[in-house]
Amino acid sequence: MYRFLRHALAGTSLLALAATAAAQDQAGSGEATVLDNIVVDAGSGGVIQADGYVGKSSATGAKTDTPFIETPQSVSSVTEEQLKDRNPQTLLDTIAYTPGARVGAYGFDPRFDSFTVRGFDVTYTGVFRDNLRQPGAGSSLFKTEPYGLEGVSILRGPSSALYGASGAGGLYNLISKRPTEDSLREVGVQYGSHGRKQAQFDFSGAFSPESPFTYRMTGLLRDSGTEQVGVPDDRAYIAPAFTWQPDEDTRFTLLSEYSRTRTGGTAAYYNDPVTGVSDIFAGNPAFNDSLQTQGRIGYEFEHRLNDVFVFRQNARASRLDIDADWAFAYQRNAADPRYLDSSAGSFSESLVAYSIDNQLEAEFDTGPAAHTVLAGIDVTRLNWNSKNGYGVAPPLDTLNPSAGRPMASIPFQTETDQDQLLTGLYLQDQIRVDDLTLTLGGRRDWVGTDTQNTTLATGAASTVTQDDSAFTWRAGITYQTPFGIAPYASYSTAFSPNAGINQETGSAFKPTESRQQEVGVKYLLPDSNTMLSAALFNIDQENGLYYEVVNLPTGPANIQVQRGKLRSRGLELEASTSLDNGLSLTAAYTYTKAEIVEGPAGTVGNDVSSIPRHMASLWAHYDMPEDGPLSGLGLGAGVRFIGKSYGSDYNTTENDARALFDASLDFDMAAIDKAYEGLTLQVNATNLFDRREPVCSAGFCYKDQGRSVIGSLKYTW
């Protein structure tokens, strides 16, 4: 399978040589090559062009900087201004107000950012970082620190025609903070619920007034408990970035990150077979450690060769290591029901990934048609290693459930080592004729996966080799009417190989495939910083991965399983605005019917568990007038409505509908005295009324995360 890597690396030089030859041919023909007024754009890094809460364009929808209104798929953004006002603490907090995103299906759990979009899990296949795939396998999922983001750009629906491995729900492109030419100096402290203490900083600027070098250094240190005993939320984070732009035609940006996070091996509550989810922590506070370290370093390079061709290369190397112990109380003891029988385990995982994406973009005209053609080769190589040990934990005393039961780490019994290589060739043409935009794209992917399972006690090993390939494509059309409304229609497909193994069978997962039909309309209101959009979609997916509680030889475990066929149909409505009067607002409504078309007996025709038919959200922030008596004060409020859903695929139990309220208050101290200029006080509350109800997914029940209040003091200069 390594032949694909050789071909892709060779393709890097072929693209560059072809572009250079084209530039030389044009210069040799006697035509003047004009470069003076060409500015390198946002390129493929995915930086959002936004005004307040309103995202206008990014490279996420087409890998070229394209206005959202011209993109023939549903797109959204979480802008820098939204991040500042809401102060999210996790990726789930960050995207909670975007259409179609189902967060909280697994209740309180700081270990993973697990969520679904349009009824499909995107945890492993739908999270991208700076337009490069951020892979995951098993418990190896990269953690996201929202303070290190300058935005999130979202493309919903199958999108493999450009991005290769991605899921049916779409992709969430996490955009790292980048160096700024203007000087930025920020330090801050936070204090909040459960003894949360955090210090943070963000510095950026040029090395000197005329220097082509700019930098950014972002970091934080957090010491925090959570609502669950034995589950901390501690983190150390640092993210250096560096940009070199010697002229208007060339840019090189280095992006890096290192973090160390300590939390719990489990955060689950005990599920009683008679009374349901209880208030008893199912774990063991004395045997519930999870330490994850992760790092990444990569770059974005862009060079304009002439007024037609631009060459780009984005690359990243990343590594994740996690070591954890866990215990899990799963049933009442037959001899004394006061005690709960508990299983336990220890595991150690590592994930190493390398990604590189080579692109050649050409802009030219053929008669009345203007073309933006993008050709590329990208490669992702990953290695996932997992060691696991299982055993029995001391029973849990229901009369003293918070007491720790000391025990030693469990020796590893099994080891899985998986290598996967993904190579993709893609081509896209955006054709513009007057107000009509036609987008056509196709991609061929090759995937090779080698999985070795070893029983450590005997050294017995078995190896499974799997090779897959697929062609995916997208066709879309958008028309911008004279009065500003832009209807669109598209068809898109996706192909996603799956890292990890089926713990029931020990074999690698099959690739997940999906296809979508979507029609919609977008409207950027004239003379108003307001974007409205609506979309109807129909998605079919085969061989998707989901978590279910399965009885293994070691006891019940919440593991990944692969399902037959799902169909999701729905409607999405979204509005965002930032007005001159100080009001900024984002609102969304989603109707989703996610149905099991093929699956286990008793589930066919049912709704997918924990996917509500109805979801809605509204967040608004208002800055008081500068000349009024409340000058300097900002108020924010939001509500997230999650409708009824089923607790399992058998549709025998229901999750009640609920509405969760959030709020914020901020005050610019300069309104009191100019001596305090740059000093800001802010308070954010999520789940303001502390609503903590059961929520069940795939037959196992959790509880909503309770109220969290965080006060922040920030100084900028």
How are the SSEs ordered, and which strands pair?
Layout: H1 3-28, E1 49-51, E2 54-58, E3 66-67, E4 75-78, H2 80-86, H3 91-95, E5 101-102, E6 116-117, E7 120-121, E8 127-129, E9 132-133, E10 149-156, H4 160-163, E11 170-176, E12 184-192, E13 196-206, E14 213-223, E15 234-247, E16 250-263, E17 269-272, E18 276-281, E19 290-304, E20 309-332, E21 339-366, E22 369-397, E23 414-433, E24 436-455, E25 460-479, E26 485-496, E27 512-524, E28 530-542, E29 545-552, E30 555-562, E31 565-578, E32 583-598, E33 614-623, E34 633-642, E35 645-646, E36 654-655, E37 658-668, E38 679-686, E39 694-697, E40 700-703, E41 708-716
Parallel strand pairs: 8-11
Antiparallel strand pairs: 1-2, 2-3, 4-10, 5-6, 6-7, 8-9, 10-11, 12-13, 12-41, 13-14, 14-15, 15-16, 16-19, 17-18, 19-20, 20-21, 21-22, 22-23, 23-24, 24-25, 25-26, 26-27, 27-28, 28-31, 29-30, 31-32, 32-33, 33-34, 34-37, 35-36, 37-38, 38-41, 39-40
Overview of this structure, please?
The chain is mainly beta and 717 residues long. The chain has a single domain (3-514, 665-716), classed as Maltoporin, Chain A, CATH 2.40.170.20. Residues 1-45 have low confidence and may be disordered.
Low-pLDDT windows of residues:
1-45
Number of helices: 4
Report the β-strand fraction as a percent range.
Answer: over 45%
CATH H-tier superfamily: TonB-dependent receptor, beta-barrel domain
Sheet/helix structural class: mainly beta
What is the gyration radius calculated from CA atoms? 26 Å
Number of strands: 41
User: Helix proportion of residues, in percent?
Assistant: under 10%
CATH architecture: Beta Barrel
Q: Span between N and C termini?
A: 53 Å
Q: Given this structure, which CATH class is correct?
A: Mainly Beta
Principal-axes shape call: globular
CATH topology: Maltoporin, Chain A
Describe the sheet with the most strands: 22 strands, antiparallel, barrel
Total separate domains: 1
Average pLDDT metric:
91
